[in-house]
Structures are given as C-alpha cells and as structure tokens.
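Example 3.2
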Amino acid sequence: MENPLGLKISSRIKVENLIEMIKILNPYNSQGKIFLITRYGLQNVNGNLEFLCQKIKENNLNVAFICDPNHGNTKVDPITNKKVRHFDDLKNEILLTNKILVENGFFLSGLHLEATYLNITECIGGITNSIDEIDCERYTTFCDPRINLSQTIELIDSVGKALSQN
C-alpha cells in the first residue's frame, strides 16, 4: 500500500473537482488511501457534507473522513482583534460531522486538533477551563489559535462520551 493522502476540504471546494482529484490520486480505489479532512466550520457542515457524501457514494469511492474543527471556526475577538475559536463550536462541529457521516453510511475516522500543552487563552470556553476572554499575555500563537491541554482533554472526553451514547 502506498502512503495515504489527506485532502483538506471546506465549503469552498468544488465537489466535482474533488471527485476527479480522488480518482486521479487513487486510480485503483484502494481503501485507506484517501482521507478527506473536513474543515467546514460549524455553520457550513449542514448541506455541504451531506452533498459530498452523496457524490462519494454515487462514484463508489473509498475514502475515510477526519474532522478538523479548528479552521472553519476561526473568528476575530472584537476586544483584542485577535483570531479566536470557541470551544463549543469545535465540539459541536465534530458531533454534527459524525452525525451526518453516519446518516450517510460513513463514519468519522479521526480528528485533527491544533492543540498545545501550554496554559494559553487562544480558544474561548470549555467547562473545566471557563475562559470567557482572551488574556493577551497567554495568547502566544503566531498563526492560528490552539486549544490548551485542559480544553484538549475536555474536548476528547466530551465528544467520546457523546458518541458512545449513540
């Protein structure tokens, strides 16, 4: 088996182009070769992911899905003018992505999280880490906001519990 390929997708992708790209990159339609990394954002999962699932099934393509809830959920904090993400948006995008995949005969194969062990405040929220505003001294990213260790543990735990109840 050749190395697997991850293709990052968002609501801006033209599904027809993606289908053709998958066929080119995986001409034998091997399982485990193509991973679609969804980066829709909570507001754009509905409709987009279901449409993609339908086209994948119509073309009988073997793909696996990974959810990257970080990128599509970036906002600008009005107070600090820094990029932020909201914990509940990340969690809810993962759960909604899984729900849509299952309803369409697929399943969520993994997550991609931008996380750090540092005690930062780049992502707002979480029960065990109830950050409700950015602390500029603990905002250290040069690019994209990350979740801290406490939020990472809580996100994985809460998503795992929610998915195991279904």
